[in-house]
Specification:
alpha/beta, seven-stranded mixed beta sheet, Purple Acid Phosphatase, chain A, domain 2
Length: about 300
């Protein structure tokens, strides 16, 4: 554990110098997903860091979809924080907000489902993109997903191979190739990940978004295209709160119309800049098609 801690310190110092400031958020794009997670304020009083992020993102002319991939709160008795979250997000020009429950939501899942999102597992379509949202099903450190939810996900993947499929979970897959996977930090994985990994080897899922790790974006392998798992692009959100070795972070995922290229940007909201050394472009399995102002449809798991 000590060696891993020293590794993060040394690598953090080396790579901080690669970050450059000054880039503004582009509005000359076709479709923008703002993806973040792990707001969880430590003192349970206010969402200070999330407010900084929202103020930063409010300068963007339009966001098509905002994703909160779990852990809005840290502790139980957090109704006031859920209400603050819902109020703060109004500052961002985005009408389509989608959340999943992380392990911390399960400390008071009734309040989360009552105030934020009653649907724990559901799909969203936007053009030829299909997003599959899968919440935690327990409060443990490992992300637990029951077999019936896995089967729902598997069926959606098999039946929608003509679409660009994006999966959103709180924890990541054990063999994703992300940094936590390479460091074998088991508590950050989905329990029984092999169920999902076997499907990825047979059927295409273009992108898999997760949080939970709090790993800063200036470290390597915070996004990674894993050819051993069907070429799935795994994206780690980091954390949208300030931690010991990281600022307030999120990911901006950009699709261009009639293009099979997706751009992933790492946003540092405290510094109001992108971590440019880790901006990447990846090739999707098919071109993105979407008409502006077309309907974004949500369907809950039956």
């Amino acid at each position: 554990m000590k060696k891993r801690f020293l590794f993060f310190i040394a690598l953090s110092t080396l790579l901080l110098s690669c970050s450059t400031a000054g880039q503004s958020l582009s509005t000359e794009v076709d479709f923008i997903i703002w993806s973040h997670s792990d707001i969880q304020p430590k003192d349970n009083k206010t969402l200070r860091d999330f407010k900084i992020a929202v103020d930063d993102m409010s300068q963007l002319e339009r966001i098509d979809i905002s994703i909160t991939a779990g852990d809005i709160v840290e502790k139980s008795r957090s109704e006031h924080l859920y209400r603050e979250y819902l109020e703060l997000r109004k500052k961002v020009n985005c009408l389509n907000w989608f959340e999943i429950a992380g392990n911390h939501e399960w400390r008071d899942i009734e309040t989360y489902t009552r105030l934020v999102n009653p649907k724990l597992h559901y799909s969203v379509t936007a053009g030829n993109i299909l997003l599959l949202f899968i919440s935690n099903s327990a409060s443990g450190r490992m992300t637990e997903i029951p077999d019936n939810v896995f089967q729902w996900w598997e069926q959606n993947v098999i039946e929608n191979q003509d679409k660009i499929i994006i999966t959103v979970t709180h924890g990541s897959l054990k063999n994703s190739g992300l940094l936590q996977s390479r460091a074998n930090i088991e508590r950050q994985f989905i329990k029984n990940s092999e169920r999902f990994e076997s499907v990825l080897k047979k059927y295409k899922v273009d992108i898999w978004i997760s949080g939970h790790s709090h790993i800063p974006g200036y470290l390597p392998f915070t996004d990674y295209k894993n050819e051993d798992l069907g070429g799935t692009i795994f994206i780690d959100n980091g954390a949208i709160r300030e931690d010991l070795f990281s600022n307030i972070e999120s990911r901006v995922i950009i699709f261009k119309k009639d293009s099979d290229i997706v751009t992933i940007k790492h946003r540092d909201h405290k510094e109001k800049k992108y971590i440019t050394s880790f901006e990447k472009e990846y090739r999707l399995s098919k071109k993105f098609h979407y008409e502006k102002d077309s309907e974004i449809k949500l369907q809950a798991m039956p």
